[in-house]
Amino acid sequence: MKQLIECVPNFSEGRNPAVIKAITDVIEGIEGVQLLDVDPGKATNRTVVTFVGEPLPVIEAALLAIKKAGELIDMRNHSGEHPRQGATDVCPLIPIANISMEETVKYARMLGERVGKETDIPVYLYEAAATKKAWKNLATIRAGEYEALPEKLGQEKWQPDYGKNEYNDAVAKTGVTVIGARDFLVAYNVNLNTTSTRRANSVAFDVREQGRVKRKGNPITGEIMRLKNGDPKRIPGKCKAVKGIGWFIEEYGVAQVSMNLTNINVTPLHIAYEACYDSANKRGLRVTGSELVGLVPLKVMVDAGKYFLKKQNRSVGVSEGELIKIAVKSMGLDELTPFDPQQKIIEYQLQNKTNQPLLYSTLKDFSDETASESPAPGGGSISAYVGALGISLATMVANLSSHKRGWDERWAEFSEWAEKGQMLKDALLNLVDEDTNAFNGIMAAFRLPKGSAEEKKARSAAIQAATKNAIEVPLKVMQLSLETFDIIEAMAKIGNPNSVTDAGVGALCARAAVHGAFLNVKINTGDLKDEKYVAKVLKEGERMIKKADKLEATVMKVVNGKI
Predict the structure, then answer these.
(1) Same domain, 219 and 145
(2) H helices of 29-97, where?
(3) Does 82 qualify as catalytic in the annotation?
(4) Which among 153, 334, 377, 389 could disulfide-bond with 167, CB atoms 3.0 to 4.6 Å apart, if both were Cys?
(5) What is the DSSP letter of 224?
(6) Residue 294 shares a structural domain with residue 364
(7) Residue tagged active-site, from 82, 89, 270, 502
(8) pLDDT at 222
(9) Residue 259, beta-bridge partner list
(10) Whole-model pTM?
(11) How many structural domains are present in the chain?
C-alpha cells in the first residue's frame, strides 16, 4: 500500500497569477505528485498550495517550489494582512495514508536539509519536526515577521536548523522558510458584519485557546497581570486547539476571525463557527458567513452537516451530498466565493473514479453498459445495485417518518435507522464496481504467460486467488443485503404507514440481491481447487438464502396486512 503525505506550502504571493503558476508548474512537473488546490488571497498576498503523493516525489516537488518561489518573490517588496517571513513562508508535511508522524518528521528534516544545502534560504523546523521545544509553535519562530530578520539572524538563539545564521542580500530577498510535520490543520475564516479589526480580535480572543491577556480593572487599558516568571496571565478562550486573530479584508470589505484549527477532533469546524457566532452576538455583531482556505477532510463537512440537522431535530440519515449542502449553507461557506465540494474536500480530490466507472455513471449509461456485449457488469454488479436500491427505499421511509406530523418526538429514533441505512447503501454501491473488478481480475490472471513451469505455477496461483476474490465479493453482497432486512422490517412495522409499500419493495429487492449474488458465488466455486473452502462457502450461502426468504415473507405479511 502506498504511503501518502500531503504538503501545504504557503507562498508570499497572492496577487500575481504568473508567479503563482510558475511555482505550481514545477510541482505538477514531478511524476507521482497530484496538485489538489491553489488558493490565492489578494488581501493576505499569500497563496496556499496543496499537493499529495508518495514521500520522495513530494519532497522533490516541495524543494523545486521553494527554489522557484525564492527566485520570483522579493520579500523586500512584500506586504499583506497575514504574518509572514519568507517567500515560502511555511511548508508543512502531513501524514495522509500508511505513514506515521515519526516517518513524516524524517521526510520534513530531509527536505529542510536539502533546502539548506541547495539554496541560500535559512530553514527552521517546527511542530513535530522541531528541534527545540519553543519552536514547535510557528508563532514563536515567526515573531517580528520578515522585518525582524536583520536583528534576529546572527544571534546564537536564532541559529537555523539548516543554512547560514546571517542576514545577507540573498536572505533579504527570500526571507526564511519554516518546514515541519504536523497533523491535518484546517485554515478557517469567519466573516463578521463589521470593518473593525479590534472588534474582530475581541471575538478571536473569546474563541482561541490562548484567549486574552488578563488585566487589572479595565479589560482593555488596565495593567497586565503577570505570573511569577513574568509571563502575562491569560483568560483562556472557549475552544482548545484553535489559534486565531482578527483582521480586515479589504478585498471583501469585511473583518474576519481568522483561525487555524490544529486538531479537528478536539474542536471541529462547526464548533469553532458556533463559538464565533455566540461571541459575535454578545458583542452586538453578526456572523454573516465563513470561508475555508485550502482543503478539508470529508469527515469535517459530514460532521458539520449532522450537527446542524440535529439542531433542527431532523434526521441525519441523509446522503453525503445532502450533509455537505447543509454544512455549507449553515456556516455560509459560499458567502464570499462558490463552494465546490469536488475541489474543497480532500477525499473527492483523491477519488479514483476510473476504478469505479459504474458508480459514477448515469442510470442510462449503466443500463447501456450492462446491455452491451461485454460480459461485465453482470449479475453480481446488478445484485449489489438491487440491494442498494432496496435499502435506499427503507432509508427513505425512515427519513419520511422522522418528520411526520405528530411524530416530532421520534425524530432521533428514525434518524438512527436512516443513518444505518445510508451506511449499508454506500457499502453495497461500492460493491457494484468491485464485482466487475473481480471479474476483470480473473481475466487478467488467465492472460498471464504460461510458457515455463514456473510461469504456469504462478499463473495457476493467480487464477485461484482471483477466483476466490470473485467469490468473496458476491458473498459480501449477500451478507450486507441480509443486514438490510433489519431496517426494512422495522420500517414496515413502525415507519410511516403511507410508505409501507416502499418497505415491501425494499424487501423484494433485498431478497433478489441475496439470491442473485449467490448465483455468482456458485458459478465461481466450480473453478476453485480448495474444496474445503468451497464447501464452507456454499453452506453459508444456502443458510443466507433461507434466511432471506423467511425475512422477506415476514415483511410482506406486514405490508399486505397494512394495505
Answers:
(1) no
(2) 55-72
(3) yes
(4) 153
(5) B
(6) no
(7) 82
(8) 87
(9) 188, 244
(10) 0.80
(11) 3
